[in-house]
Amino acid sequence: MQRRTFLKLGALASGAFFLSGVGQTGRAAVSAAQGMIPTVDQLVMTNVVDNVFDVFARGGQIGNLTVRRRGVTNPLGSVLQLLSEHGLAYHLMSQRGTDQREILLDFALTGASLINNYQALGIDPARADALILSHGHNDHYGALPGLVPLVPRWTERQMQLYAGGEDTFCHRWTVAPDGQRTDMGQLDRALMESYGLNVILSGQPAVVADHAMTSGRIPRMAAFESPPATARLEVGEAGSGCEVSLLNHFPAGTPQVEAQPGEVVRDFFDGEHATVYNVKDRGLVIISSCGHAGIVNTVRQAQAVTGIEKIHAIVGGWHLAPAPDDVVAATVDAFKDISPDYLIPMHCTGINTISAVQRELPGRLVMPSTGTRVVFGA
């Protein structure tokens, strides 16, 4: 999107889209010791872009959550209306005492939706303290390449972009049983770095902006969870980070394959990671943007790396829309064992799983809708 097009949309509610600040540098992989997750007093999670917009979704006080919904504003044309699409983006604002942090997690499919919704919701991306990308599908990073040049303070501050692994920047495809391919895009790491972003590969758990943590690589433990059979990665040239020796080594025991650059291999989403907060007196809020590694695997990894068993909420896409009934049932049974306070399914979770959660875990379901703000903590 051209800068003039963006500016034409109007200034944000804050009145200052481009802000100054000082960031940290460094490109090395990072790690965090078990049990070192920060604790925050409050987390306000805004679902900036999601697949659905439901004006009838329940809001207000739901248990000890405050859920703020954004409806259609009349008269039409008086303000920006929210846009939904097959994509996902979050704004995460956390508070610890007087210390506040803002993190942007994932960046939808298109700039038209993301930038519109940032403005409609009064979110200033220049205020972000860090960026996180869950994985390398274009419905999660699509708007990022066009957004970065519009936020020059990110360049000035060498804004950190946390990605789970090299495969985040490989070319992804889906291949149907009949052989038909769908291009899922490729995020250009060199382009991101040329804009001044500081790309950090956090294959190990990483503390982000002193308030959040990434999960690191997610071990595959649950026998019923496996990545989509149609998902593929394109093999790259030696040294690209997408060579075949790196793309098919996970999970352990996976047979090695021979493939040449340009060919595709099974995608195990080795570099997909989740975002985790520890909310004081509540427990963990685990945000799995797409859950290709398995939502149960993701929760167990978050518990392991933080040393905290109590789960306040499991949030995000769980990639169960195409899952068979037995996998959905096994997942919901695992949720019963995990016993989270709340389940907030989004994006690729699917009505099959949402219905099962509502039936089997009544009172814990919070329905998704673009523009929803959920307040965790006092």
What would you say this structure looks like, in words?
This protein has 378 residues and is an alpha/beta fold. The chain has one domain: Metallo-beta-lactamase, Chain A (4-Layer Sandwich). Helix content is 20%, strand content 25%. It contains 10 helices and 20 strands. The protein has a 9-stranded mixed sheet. The longest helix has 14 residues. The two termini are 39 Å apart.
What's the short version?
The chain has helices at residues 3-8, 111-120, 138-141, 144-147, 152-156, 189-194, 244-247, 295-306, 325-338, 351-360, and strands at 39-40, 42-49, 60-62, 65-68, 89-96, 99-107, 130-132, 160-163, 172-175, 181-185, 198-201, 206-208, 212-214, 231-234, 264-266, 275-279, 283-288, 311-317, 342-346, 373-377. Helix content is 20%, strand content 25%. The protein contains ten helices and 20 strands.
Order of helices and strands: HEEEEEEHEHHHEEEHEEEEHEEEHEHEHE
Radius of gyration: 20 Å
**Integer average pLDDT:** 88
In percent terms, what proportion of residues is strand? 25-35%
> Per CATH, what is the topology?
Metallo-beta-lactamase, Chain A
CATH class: Alpha Beta
| CATH homologous superfamily title | Ribonuclease Z/Hydroxyacylglutathione hydrolase-like
Shape: globular
Overall domain count: 1
Number of helical segments?
10
Task: List the keywords.
single chain, globular, seven-stranded mixed sheet, Metallo-beta-lactamase, Chain A, disordered N terminus, 20% helix, 378 residues, 10 helices
Layout of SSEs?
Layout: H1 3-8, E1 39-40, E2 42-49, E3 60-62, E4 65-68, E5 89-96, E6 99-107, H2 111-120, E7 130-132, H3 138-141, H4 144-147, H5 152-156, E8 160-163, E9 172-175, E10 181-185, H6 189-194, E11 198-201, E12 206-208, E13 212-214, E14 231-234, H7 244-247, E15 264-266, E16 275-279, E17 283-288, H8 295-306, E18 311-317, H9 325-338, E19 342-346, H10 351-360, E20 373-377
Parallel strand pairs: 1-16, 6-7, 7-8, 8-11, 17-18, 18-19
Antiparallel strand pairs: 2-5, 2-20, 3-4, 4-20, 5-6, 9-10, 9-14, 12-13, 13-16, 14-15, 16-17
